[in-house]
Design a protein that fits this description.
two-stranded antiparallel ribbon; globular; 10 helices; Arp2/3 complex 21 kDa subunit ARPC3; mainly alpha
């Protein structure tokens, strides 16, 4: 994940971050009037933007998603949960390009064959689930909205919009960005890939974390599963402690998996 820090030393990457954030926020804000959970989330056709910008601009797309989401939140109310919104949207913009490169190398992210489509859709699903897991965990930890409700809404909202719109947007935009040499690999250069075994371990951790985390978070937040080591004094109707403690190792495993790619 070194590139997410090093990119701030490159003026063009900083400009692309600002562009990504502005575009994301500009499409988010008008749809604040269509809330799914008031003050928490809404119908978001802008959810394709972080994925598209991730494939195009790499870490600039990740930072743009995080910052753009915060800008959008100013128009719906700022609160402590926005910290987890920042992290979740950062992962939503970070996972696509990083997982795609780990699996497909620097092949253009415009799928043409069934295997490429399978990887492409899988990458979007992983990014959507990573965002949903992180935000659902954080908001439930604060005692606001149950994980089982919020995380699954975010997962479906992100995945459906991104899976439908991203292929069309990339088909139009990607060739132009490539010819202008504005892709993150054009600006930052290619990174030497990690050994196959390391990348495989990272992918296993990521997939296990998002799948296991979504299932575990849902079971904990609905009361179908109890943490045997949790003191009775910490139990609550919001199940904040159960979800918070139960999913923290899962979120850490997700971050470790991304660091290994």
């Amino acid at each position: 994940m070194r590139d997410v820090v090093e990119m701030w030393g490159n003026t063009r990457m900083v400009v692309l971050t600002a562009m990504s954030a502005s575009l994301y926020a500009a499409i988010l804000i008008p749809f604040k009037v269509l809330p799914i959970i008031p003050g928490v989330t809404e119908f978001r056709p802008a959810n394709a933007v972080p994925v598209v910008c991730s494939f195009l601009f790499g870490p600039a797309g990740a930072w743009g998603a995080a910052i753009g989401n915060v800008i959008g939140d100013f128009f719906g109310g700022i609160g402590p949960g926005d910290l987890f919104g920042f992290l979740g949207n950062f992962l939503y913009g970070y996972v696509p390009y990083r997982v795609w490169i780990a699996v497909m190398g620097e092949r253009d992210p415009i799928p043409k064959t069934p295997p490429q489509w399978l990887v492409f859709v899988g990458v979007i699903a992983l990014a959507s689930a990573a965002c949903a897991l992180t935000i659902g965990w954080g908001i439930n930890l604060l005692g606001f909205v149950p994980f089982s409700v919020l995380a699954n809404i975010i997962l479906v909202n992100n995945f459906v919009v991104a899976a439908v719109l991203t292929p069309f947007l990339l088909a139009v935009i990607y060739p132009r960005v490539k010819s202008a040499q504005l892709r993150h690999t054009d600006i930052l250069g290619s990174r030497r890939p990690r050994p196959v075994a390391v990348r495989a371990l990272g992918l296993i951790l990521i997939v296990s974390a998002v799948v296991g985390g979504m299932v575990l978070g849902t079971l904990l937040s609905t009361g179908w599963l109890q943490l045997p080591f949790l003191p009775a004094a910490l139990a609550s109707t919001t199940r904040a402690a159960e979800v918070g403690l139960g999913l923290t190792p899962i979120v850490l495993a997700l971050l470790l998996g991304l660091a290994l790619l």
